[in-house]
Amino acid sequence: MKKFLLLSMIGIFGLSYSQQAPKVLKTSFSKEALNQKLENEEGKSTSIQEILDQHKGKILVIDFWAGWCRDCLKALPKAEELERNNPKVDFVFLSLERSKEGFDKSLDRFNMKDKDNYWFASGWENDFNNYIDLNWIPRYMVIDQKSVIAKYYAISPEDPEIQQTIDNLLQ
C-alpha cells in the first residue's frame, strides 16, 4: 500500500516538474540577465553580454544542457547534427552542472572540449535563467546577428522552427 501511495504521489507531483512553454516569448534580454556571470573552461568569469558581443554579426544558437541530464544526452547527437548542418552559425553551450568538477568531467566525457562552453557557477537560479524562464533542460534559443532573440523557446534540436529561424536569418 505504501509503495502504491508513493508511486501515485510521484505520478501526480512529477507532472508539475515537466517543461512548460513560457507564457511570454521574449525578444530581448534585461540588463540583469545580460550582466549574469558565467565561467569558461579555464575558470575565467564572463557575462552573457560579453558572450553575445563575441558573436555579434553572427547567428547564435544557445544550447542549455548538463551531463547529468538524460534528455540533454539523448539530444546531443541531433544537436551536433544541427551544428554540422549550419557552419555559418555559432553555437554556445551553457552548462547547468552543479560544480566546476562536474562541468570539466562532462566536457571530457561527452567530447565537448572543442566547443564554446560556459557554466553557471552561481547555479540554476540566477538572473539570466530566471529572466528566460528556464525551467527544464535541454533548451535552445536562436539569437540573430544583432543579439535579438529570434527563437526564444525550443526543447529539442529537432524542432523545425530552429532550422526555419536560422534559414530566415541567413537570407
Automatic annotation (TrEMBL):
One Pfam entry name: Thioredoxin_8
Top-level lineage group: Bacteria
Boundaries of every Thioredoxin domain copy: 27-171
Gene3D superfamilies, alphabetized: Glutaredoxin
UniProt keyword annotations, A-Z: Isomerase
Keyword Isomerase: yes
UniProt GO MF annotations: isomerase activity
Name of this protein: Thiol-disulfide isomerase-like thioredoxin
Organism: Chryseobacterium populi
Organism taxonomic ancestry: Bacteria, Pseudomonadati, Bacteroidota, Flavobacteriia, Flavobacteriales
